[in-house]
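Archive entry: two folds, one per protein. Generate the first.
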Amino acid sequence: MPDVFQLSVDGMLDQEVDRIRALGIPAVILFGLPAAKDEVGSENFAEDGIVQRALRRLRARHPDLLLLTDVCCCEYTSHGHCGIVKDGAVDNDATLGVLGRVAVSHAAAGADVVAPSGMMDGMVQAIRAALDAATHADCAILSYAVKYASAFYGPFREAADSTPAFGDRRQYQMDPANVREAVQEAALDEAEGADFLMVKPALAYLDVIRAVRERSPLPLVTFNVSGEYAMVKAAAQRGWIDERRVVLEALTGMRRAGADAIITYHAKDAARWLSESDAGL
């Protein structure tokens, strides 16, 4: 994807986050690429895992930065699925213990918010129990409560090397045609103790954002995903659209639909453009 890079935990990470902070962006979410993968994704919860090392470095360098982490297995497992695979399918209950270990390791390394993204049933409750038992009750949970089995994830899966080795993720991600399940999934995660809810993707699901917003008082986040970003970038490079106007219009639509916060690859550009507008440039 244009202007999107994998960063090593050294000066590259420091320089990127320094630029982010200079733009006034208050938070980052970390995704990790392990040195090695296995059936359970062991580096996902290792003390010296890539995300854990990044957290400690960023916490020391930017104490006021809100640090969120992705809690899932797909980037770490040799099979590329979001949980433990048994007999050719993801075992939901066996995965919950792994997610708890990951969340605790992230909290111990400095995460303010853990964000389980695998759409496992009971994941919020399992993670909340694990965090509380490990004296990390102050670590919040942003649940990917509503995550559709979407074609818009393609560029991310390539960048994060997380394409499933077999099958697909429709076993645990949602049918794009179903909005009633979205409302139910959000309510279940709220009842289990989620502090924030997410709808993902964003642009093709503005109606879902609105439906969840109308039924839950929790802060609502949406994820402006890689395919959405890539389409805008590709059209802008061809000169077919005004990138600045299109991006700000799309982000405004997400807010108008009910999102309190947006995770987006456009964040740096949007922050710069909004700052220029405020300055009358």
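Generate the second and append.
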Amino acid sequence: MWDNPRFRNWIAVARACHLVQQELARRLKTLDLKTPHLDVLVNLVRTPGISQHDLARKLFVGRSNMTMLLPQLEKRGLVERRPDADDRRVLRLHLTPQGETLAGEAIAIQAGIVNDIMSLSSDEECELVGDAMRRIANHLLTSQTASGDEERDQG
């Protein structure tokens, strides 16, 4: 197994990803943030007004995770939930001005880490890595969707 290049290289990718996450977590401590908080903030920068349901789906987390994360961010005055204008059952998420500022600082930390590690590769190598990871993600998402369809058909 260890001499299989696919396995060996996948382990290298997983190890690098884990180490990047550790470094990001270490640096976010200066802002009193954890990586799940950053995930929420980044998505609210990119998609202001996203619903809780859509954000949970985008982050691949369950409702319970959102139920824990959002009150923490609200308590700090970073995020606010507002009722949807058309459907009062839906809550839309928005950053407060303080949340926008903190999100900008956290994104700068993450971008610095990414720029540092990706500077070890040529532009061509970066594109190859990105292409490979997108193919893998698309394959897994397609497999999950197909598997979910099969389960619904059987149930």
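Annotation attached to the second fold: The chain has two domains: 5-120, 122-155. Residues 75 and 98 are 12 Å apart (CA to CA).
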